[in-house]
TrEMBL record:
Catalyzes the methylthiolation of N6-(dimethylallyl)adenosine (i(6)A), leading to the formation of 2-methylthio-N6-(dimethylallyl)adenosine (ms(2)i(6)A) at position 37 in tRNAs that read codons beginning with uridine. Residues 370-430 form the TRAM domain. Belongs to the methylthiotransferase family. MiaB subfamily. It is found in: Cytoplasm. Pfam families: Radical_SAM, TRAM, UPF0004. [4Fe-4S] cluster 2 binds at residues 154, 158, 161. It comes from Thermodesulfovibrio aggregans. This is tRNA-2-methylthio-N(6)-dimethylallyladenosine synthase.
């Protein structure tokens, strides 16, 4: 394959963003440069997300927008990667014949073979049980913080979710390979790592479970902060809470998706916990780590969600007081159990419920942020903008803007002088 410029557009979660870093790593090792516009590229890659209809729609529109480029330049290669590629495979190629290659998340390494012209297939969607062992170079988007995959796939089959069909069975990456990657990141000046998996709590390699993995990573030189996403409430143990508490580098933040406050809906969702069990774990967390910030995901308008069920989600948010949430309207996905359930909710009701939830949470988030005014927070500086503002995050994952040029990668103590809904303003305190 000729050509030396690649354009990649990424949709979806941090796992997809990290897959993009890996794809760019392969392209770079073959002499490609990344360009900002598809019209300047010899290869265009869409790294797609299938989690909700909207994400898929966005990809299809982007794909439609480059059709004319392919007409003008038949040499242009179009690769569709990610979760839509995995789910639709051949169907997508039938629908959009100008796609050149379809590559599922387990087959990213095949890009190398494609670039070397060693391959005549167009579709690479076989599940690869060994994906956790494959080494692929990464072109990191950031130089202070880095993503590290520790698990692949998901076995939970939440009734609404396509991920078990797009990312395959759950596989844990060997512990030595994880530690080696993080040691290298520490040596290269990275300060923060985020461990990625759909359900990191169920990590296991022999005797090493997730809390033991955190303890090992905590020893690695150079790394100052450790984060992880996502934790499934059913697998959140006291052992993990202790690891967060006692490993000094593990940050005081957990993303723990609740999804709904009604036990009837949680059961239909196949989440495997009740609201009471979830709430008990929130209490354990706050008892052990009083400053911990807790964020969550909520789905509104799941099939059969009556007003009284929705009210239970509202009450849950009032009772728990999350630091922040991501809230979504239920989107029926072909092949999932929830798409076939009776009692689908109208778009209008879903929209009303989403607005109500977001309004309530905005107030809670703002109030919680206000409590931080006047406090001293440890901030890792991640970026600097043109106006000499430095931006970083607290250990609890809140964004802080500081009106000084501090230098990325530095960890400093900052006094919070003003709280907004989505960020905090801070000033350096004289040490
Ligand atoms: N593995 C993670 C995240 C999966 S996707 C976890 O279990 O929490 C991120 C979020 O998208 C989910 O937590 C859920 O809130 C939302 N989501 C997944 N499928 C959805 C669907 N069909 N409709 C609406 N939201 C969905
Ligand atoms: Fe989807 Fe549930 Fe797996 Fe998360 S745990 S990826 S929501 S099936
Ligand atoms: Fe992520 Fe979307 Fe796939 S959320 S796992 S890219 S379906």
């Amino acid at each position: 394959m000729k050509g030396r410029a690649v354009y990649i557009k990424t949709f979806g979660c941090q796992m997809n963003e990290h897959d993009t870093e890996r794809m760019l790593g392969i392209f770079e090792s073959k002499g490609f440069i990344e360009v900002e516009e598809p019209k300047k590229a010899d290869i265009v890659v869409f790294n797609t997300c299938a989690i909700r209809q909207k994400a898929e729609q966005k990809f299809l529109s982007s794909l439609g927008r480059i059709k004319h480029l392919k007409k003008k330049n038949p040499e242009l290669k179009i690769i569709v990667a990610g979760c839509v590629a995995q789910l639709q495979g051949e169907k997508l190629l039938d629908r959009v014949p100008y796609i050149d290659y379809i590559i599922g998340p387990d087959n990213i390494h095949m890009i190398e073979n494609i670039l070397e012209n060693q391959i005549s297939n167009k579709i690479f969607t076989d599940e690869n049980p060994l994906v956790a062992n494959i080494k692929i170079p990464a072109k990191r988007m950031h130089h202070v913080k880095a993503w590290v995959n520790i698990m692949y796939g998901c076995n939970n089959y939440c009734a609404y979710c396509v991920v078990p069909y797009t990312r395959g069975r759950e596989r844990s990456r060997p512990v030595e390979s994880i530690l080696e990657e993080i040691r290298l990141l520490g040596e290269s000046g990275f300060k923060e790592i985020t461990l990625l998996g759909q359900n990191v709590n169920s990590y296991r390699d022999g005797d090493i479970d997730f809390p033991s993995l955190l303890e090992k990573i905590n020893e690695i030189k150079g790394i100052e902060r450790i984060r992880f996403v996502t934790s499934h409430p059913k697998d959140l143990s006291k052992r993990l809470i202790n690891a967060i508490k006692y490993c000094d580098k593990v940050c005081e933040h957990i993303h723990l998706p609740l999804q709904a406050g009604s036990n009837k809906i949680l059961k239909l969702m196949n989440r495997k916990y009740t609201y009471e069990e979830y709430f008990e774990k929130i209490c354990w967390l706050r008892e052990a780590i009083p400053d911990i910030s807790i964020t969550s995901d909520i789905i509104v308008g799941f099939p059969q969600e009556q007003d009284e069920d929705f009210e239970k989600t509202i009450n849950a948010l009032k009772e728990i007081q999350f630091d922040g949430i991501f809230a979504f309207k239920f989107s029926p996905r072909t092949g999932t159990v929830a798409a076939k359930l009776d009692g689908q909710i109208s778009e209008e009701v879903k929209s009303q419920r989403l607005t109500e939830i977001l309004k309530l949470q905005d107030k809670i988030t703002e109030r919680k942020n206000k409590l931080l005014e006047g406090t001293i927070q440890e901030v890792l500086i991640e970026d600097k903008d043109e106006e000499e503002y430095s931006t970083g995050r607290t250990r609890t994952n809140k964004i802080v803007k500081i009106a000084s040029d501090i230098g990325t990668g530095k960890i400093i103590n900052v006094k919070i002088i003003k709280a907004h809904r989505h960020s905090l303003e801070g000033e350096i305190i004289k040490q």
